[in-house]
Inverse folding.
């Protein structure tokens, strides 16, 4: 376990070995025999699960929570809870209302689901060993999708003023989430924006990049380490991801790790992934051991974090 | 009942993956008169059925929308009009008519 090893890799530095970061998420609930829907709403269980998983997997870092619905639910978005998954937002308050009509407020540490997470973070920080705690906040386009629904993907092309207004609001929410994770003490804070891979590069540049800047400034002003997580086939927007302003980024199993490594090296960024979460770890179609060896070999020792994709 | 247009949405899991959730929602949020003429289904790759469908279409990435066997949207959530265009290009006459109705009323 080595907090500094992970921070160095996340900042694109050369490391003596690749740090290890499992995004255990609700798997922590499984490890301690709890249902995800119970686990995510109980600070004691959250702390217990994270600390247990960190010890079991001998991590260099662990997320406090991996749930991209926290912000939206804390603003009142309707969601379904699941025993084996994070919740999923099903109601979109901006689908047929403006921001003013919906009267959405930026959630603070005292609102919605945040108090449970803040309390869990405090408990983890008191007891954790030499590993980095990561705060993962919902990125602006994913949050905009939760608030507006699928219409946001038409708005970013056909109704840019409205898209700009919604993404501008989401940028403020992201910044507040970054402050909450900063105040918890998270050493690394990442904007997690999976749907940002599902748009064109020019749309990313126009809406996602600016909406991340305030949160990134919060992280950097506090001297913390930043990252941008993206899922899916992000090949077409990877150049934009590299230019967004974070210390590094993380990708999923659908990208070619050699291409990703070369892009990260070109920009001097940290990068993480892309163990085949579905094909190897979940389905077993690819041998997980061989997959790990390939990832480690391709990732190298400059800025690379060994992590699932 | 006329023949329905088959729309398959290949996902990791629309509950677990936000990109998949909104790719699926692009289809489920279509107007009712359009949805009546399409047969849509999510195929998540976490089970053998989904894996077989992914292989059958020779899909490359997730999420993907397949319309009448054509891979149309790969890792790009379509704009509403783009999706209507893609459906109309493969639709039987009755669905084309319904899509035109949607376009003229919006």
């Amino acid at each position: 376990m080595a907090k500094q090893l992970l921070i160095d890799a996340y900042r694109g530095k050369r490391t003596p070995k690749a740090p290890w970061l499992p995004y255990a998420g609700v798997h922590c609930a499984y490890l301690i025999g709890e249902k995800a829907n119970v686990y995510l709403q109980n600070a004691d269980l959250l702390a217990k699960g994270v600390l247990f998983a960190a010890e079991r997997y001998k991590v260099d870092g662990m997320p406090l929570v991996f749930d991209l619905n926290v912000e939206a639910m804390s603003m009142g978005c309707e969601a379904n809870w699941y025993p084996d998954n994070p919740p999923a937002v099903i109601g979109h308050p901006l689908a047929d209302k403006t921001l003013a009509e919906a009267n959405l407020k930026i959630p603070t540490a005292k609102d919605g689901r945040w108090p449970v997470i803040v309390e869990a973070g405090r408990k983890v920080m008191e007891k954790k060993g030499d590993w980095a705690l990561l705060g993962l906040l919902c990125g602006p386009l994913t949050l905009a999708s939760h608030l507006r629904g699928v219409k946001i993907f038409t708005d970013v092309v056909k109704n840019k003023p409205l898209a700009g207004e919604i993404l501008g609001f989401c940028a403020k929410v992201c910044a507040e989430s970054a402050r909450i994770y900063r105040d918890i003490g998270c050493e690394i804070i990442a904007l997690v924006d999976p749907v940002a891979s599902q748009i064109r590069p020019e749309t990313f540049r126009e809406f996602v990049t600016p909406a991340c800047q305030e949160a990134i400034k919060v992280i950097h002003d506090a001297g913390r380490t930043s990252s941008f997580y993206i899922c899916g086939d992000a090949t077409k927007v990877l150049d934009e991801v590299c230019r967004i302003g974070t210390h590094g980024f993380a990708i999923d199993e659908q990208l070619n790790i050699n291409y990703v490594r070369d892009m990260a090296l070109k920009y001097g960024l940290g990068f993480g992934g892309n163990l085949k979460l579905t094909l190897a770890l979940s389905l077993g179609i690819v041998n997980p051991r061989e997959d790990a060896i390939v990832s480690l070999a391709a990732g190298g020792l400059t800025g690379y974090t060994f992590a699932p994709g | 009942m006329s023949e329905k247009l088959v729309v398959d949405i290949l996902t990791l899991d629309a509950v677990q993956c936000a990109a998949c959730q909104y790719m699926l929602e692009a289809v489920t949020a279509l107007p009712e008169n359009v949805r009546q003429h399409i047969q849509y289904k999510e195929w998540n790759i976490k089970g053998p059925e989904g894996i077989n469908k992914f292989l059958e279409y020779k899909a490359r990435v997730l999420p993907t929308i397949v319309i009448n066997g054509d891979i149309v949207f790969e890792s790009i959530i379509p704009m509403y009009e783009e999706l209507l265009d893609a459906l109309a290009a493969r639709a039987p006459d009755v669905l084309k008519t319904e899509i035109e109705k949607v376009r003229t009323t919006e």
